[in-house]
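Make up an example, fold above all:
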Amino acid sequence: LVRHAGGPFEGKSPNKHNKFYFEVEALPAGVVRAIQDGEIPQGKSFKDTKTLVTKLEALGISRDEGRGIVAVEGTNILFDVTKGIQYLNETMDLIVDSFKEAMGRGPLANERVFGLKIRLVDAKLHEDSIHRGPAQTIPAARSGIYGAMCLGERMLLEPFQKVTVNVPQEVLAGATRELQRRRGEILDMTSVGDLQTVIAKVPVAEMFGFASDIRSATAG
């Protein structure tokens, strides 16, 4: 993820003949949820682009930008917002490969990237295809994406784990104290008879030793 919009940043091929310019920013939360729910498909082949563009517009992506959707990888989307770039169509598959690689291994800790809008805003390509093959295009586009993310102040997201605890009413306070001691957030509490069910999310880093500690906190 990034703290704010970043770019444009220039990614240059090893032979210096090809340049790609990228911008990045966080996707609207509604778009991320739609991807997670399967309403926006993964990959680069979309059966009904018109419907997809309309859906993106409803979720906060402008129609002009939505028409440029190229690929979805994880919870991230690549858009091409360039106009009239010669030879770009011939290299787009390689740009998508770069995008997928960058989203799978981000620039901060080689972790998967979450919830980003990647915009290709400009490109300059060599007229001879032999000078814009995979060895030139992929590192250039990847470095352009990474650079824009760095300008946007990339950051790590802390992983959380969903925890469900079933305890009698008389030891409920001990269970909730143990969850909160581990920086847990109580999401829901329900009761059936004398049995209480607590659902919480807790940072994964705080879960070590949880099983034994929760037994101690609730008298077994």
Observations:
- DSSP finds seven helices and eight strands in the chain.
- The chain has a mean pLDDT of 95.
- The beta strands are 6-12, 19-26, 69-73, 76-80, 116-124, 160-168, 185-192, 195-203.
